[in-house]
Specification:
The protein is α+β, with helices and mostly antiparallel strands and 675 residues long. It has 6 domains: 4-52, Orthogonal Bundle (Helix Hairpins), CATH 1.10.287.610; 72-313, DNA ligase/mRNA capping enzyme (D-amino Acid Aminotransferase, Chain A, domain 1, 2-Layer Sandwich); 318-416, Beta Barrel (OB fold (Dihydrolipoamide Acetyltransferase, E2P)), CATH 2.40.50.140; 431-501, DNA polymerase, domain 1 (Orthogonal Bundle); 506-576, 5' to 3' exonuclease, C-terminal subdomain (DNA polymerase, domain 1, Orthogonal Bundle), CATH 1.10.150.20; 597-667, BRCT domain (Rossmann fold), CATH 3.40.50.10190. 36% of the residues lie in helices and 19% in strands. The longest helix is centred in the first third of the chain and has 21 residues, at 4-24.
């Protein structure tokens, strides 16, 4: 752009296009972070030259005009947006501005810190306690009526009892993660396109012309605001308002906290960033509000946002970048997984240059091609994935990508097995499969062989020292010392780690062997039932199927695996090497938890996650990773998962402090629970 004026005009045009896609069509073209960057650039230009500001600028307006397909409803009070900050320093600068305006020390101001839920803003109006109408935010002053649809949302009360006068309750319509997963499962069963994310699914579900469609979706509504709360509900602070909304039957954020001072406010907003994946719904930030309503009145608002509130946006989990090429990797089972090679981009705080594309069907469904600009998503520790291409009709696209017919590592055929969507290299001598088998065999969740990562495993295979996982137990220091980067000390350390791995229990060995569908829970169930590998190897299919935690699919996989000639030879070699093929007996331990499911969340002093679960299993219990109505109790350690705590409280499952864990193991009971 040759001038700032031309650049500002172009930015306004782009932002308006994206506003229409996001707010009206529920089909955003770019991730929030890319949109935020457009808005920030426009504001920088306007601040440098105020003559560039026009009334229709996104810096002066809220949302987008209502869709003409819906009846318009004027809000009794404008539904404003929130200004954003993107790091701790910007958040503290906002707190300083608030403190100067109030002429108070920032450490004397009370703030309410709430999750910034990624949903659709909604206003619900009641007349004398009865739900009268509901509307989306629209352009902030006029929204779209969605009353019939909102009546189908279970968490929206249709009656508030004998509450006189008018009341406007505002909040966010959303889909919880579990509900979103279930919705996409149904979409798959119907051979219909899956929803890209919970926000779009929730918005599209609410803005339906047919309320019956909305009723099929498990939408929820989180309340956090009321118009004129002092007069309508008699409350004078945000904390009191949330408590009152809860009493009226609304869902409010369980993790919202009122804290005193800027330091505590910053810390609490950082807590939400650290625990964003533990919450039952998607969040993209934390909302910080001055708690006292009288102080809010003194601070006032701009034309689009209150000065008494701010949104701290977290590092984006979605960004756009260029798809350079599509390659295929081969895993330990031979599964061929397509992955994207990307122009490096920072997502969720780390640089991403590779992302999974799952399988051939997903590549075709998403229709991503080399050369496309694509959306990349990375949530926490989850492997980055390509969500889809960003449409641009003005740019010619490359040819559709075709899944290869031959393994890129060994040249063997890639085939689909049965009705599976994945393709597999069926060459048992494929070097890529061997490498991943060795890496998995030595991983922490399997035999935990310290010092044997992917690079070392590749070096051992290339040197001809390992052609099967059983060869690991034949390694000696003399041969290892000859390898580059392995001196006498490190060679001895690796041999020692391999020697210690021989003593791992049968349950860990079953994980290490890489039996399809067998994870830690099923492995423990099998090892506890049979006690010795020899018994497992001779078990009939019918016996495998009746084991709790196994089932027909896992049973069939195990039955076939243990009878494979290749596996028979491998196990014979492991036995000759002295590898433990039995599960240590727990007969000397009282079975205090027999038949009981105990979930552990967070860190329990004196235990690793694996050893805590093993202690439960050794006493006859099970230790599943999720909370259900059948859960006996949840042991709560340091930094517990918020979603597990919330579900336990909802189901009435006892929460037991970490200090009670030893007592629980010894007696099957506890002295006290936590709130």
């Amino acid at each position: 752009m040759s001038t700032a004026s031309e650049r500002a005009a172009w930015l306004r045009e782009q932002i308006a296009r994206h506003n229409d896609a996001y707010f009206v069509r529920d089909a955003p073209l770019i991730p929030d972070a890319d949109y935020d960057e457009l808005v920030r650039e426009l504001r920088r230009l306007e601040q440098a030259d105020p003559s560039l500001v026009v009334p229709s600028s996104p810096s002066q307006t809220v949302g987008a005009a209502p869709d003409v397909a819906f009846k318009p409803i004027a809000h009794r009070e404008a539904m404003l947006s929130l200004d954003n900050v993107f790091d701790e320093s910007e958040l503290r600068a906002w707190a300083d501005r608030v403190s100067r305006a109030l002429e108070l020390d920032p450490e004397s101001i009370a703030f309410c810190v709430e999750p910034k839920i990624d949903g659709l803003a909604l206003s619900i109006h009641y007349d004398d306690g009865q739900l009268a109408w509901a509307a989306t935010r629209g352009d902030g002053r006029t929204g779209e009526e969605v009353t019939a649809n909102v009546r189908t949302v279970a968490s929206v009360p249709t009656s508030l009892g004998a509450l006189a006068g008018g009341l406007d309750v505002r909040g966010e319509v959303f889909l919880a993660r579990d509900a979103f997963a279930e919705l996409n499962r149904v979409q798959r069963e119907r051979d219909e396109r899956e929803f890209a994310n919970p926000r779009n699914a929730a918005a599209g579900s609410l803005r339906q012309k047919n309320a019956a469609v909305t009723a099929e979706r498990a939408l929820s509504f989180l309340a956090y605001q009321v118009v004129d709360p002092a007069n309508s509900l008699g409350v004078t602070s945000q904390g009191a308002l949330l408590e009152k909304l809860g009493e009226l039957g609304y869902l409010v954020a369980a993790d919202a906290r009122v804290v005193l001072g800027a330091d505590a406010m910053v810390a609490r907003s950082s807590w939400f960033q650290e625990h964003r994946h533990d919450l039952p719904f998607d969040v993209d930030g934390a909302v910080i509000k001055v708690d006292d309503f009288a102080q809010r009145a003194r601070l006032g608002s701009t034309s689009r946002a209150p000065r008494w509130a701010i949104a701290r946006k977290f590092p984006p989990e979605e960004r756009t970048t260029r798809l350079v090429s599509i390659e295929v990797s081969i895993g330990r089972t031979g599964r061929a997984t397509p992955y994207a090679v990307l122009e490096p981009v920072v997502v969720a705080g780390s640089t991403v240059s590779l992302a999974t594309l799952h399988n051939a069907d997903q590549v075709a469904l998403k229709d991503v091609r080399p050369g496309d600009v694509v959306v990349v998503r990375k949530a926490g520790d989850v492997i980055p994935e390509v969500v889809g291409a960003v449409p641009d009709p003005s740019v010619a696209r490359g040819e559709p990508w075709v899944f290869p017919s031959a393994c890129p590592e060994c040249g063997g055929p890639l085939v689909r097995l049965g009705e599976e969507r994945d393709s597999y290299c069926v060459n048992p001598n494929c070097p890529a499969q061997l490498l991943q088998q060795v890496v998995h065999f030595a991983s922490r969740g399997a035999l935990d062989i310290e010092g044997l990562g992917e690079q070392r495993a590749a070096q051992l295979i290339e040197a001809g020292l390992v052609g099967d996982v059983a060869d690991l137990f034949s390694l000696d220091t003399a041969r290892l010392e000859q390898l580059e980067g392995l001196g006498a000390v490190s060679a001895a350390a690796l041999v020692g780690a391999v020697e210690r791995a021989k003593a791992q229990p049968l349950s860990r060995l079953l994980v290490a062997l890489g039996i399809r569908h067998v994870g830690p829970v099923a492995a423990r169930a099998l090892a506890t039932w049979f006690k010795a590998y020899a018994e497992l190897a001779q078990a009939p299919l019918a016996e495998l199927e009746v084991i709790d935690g196994v089932g027909p699919v896992i049973a069939a996989s195990v039955f076939q695996f243990v009878r494979s000639p290749e596996v028979l030879e491998r196990l014979a070699r492991l036995e000759r090497a002295g590898v433990t093929l039995v599960e240590p007996s727990s007969d000397e331990l009282d079975q205090t938890l027999r038949g009981r499911a105990v979930v552990v969340t967070g860190t329990v002093p004196g235990f690793t996650r694996e050893s805590a679960e093993a202690a439960i299993v050794a006493r006859g219990g099970t230790s599943p990773g999720t909370v259900s109505a059948k859960t006996y109790c949840v042991v709560v350690g340091d930094a517990p998962g918020a979603s597990k705590l919330t579900k336990a409280r909802t189901l009435g499952v006892a929460l037991v402090g970490a200090t009670e864990f030893e007592t629980l193991l010894e007696t099957g009971a506890w002295r006290a629970t936590i709130a």
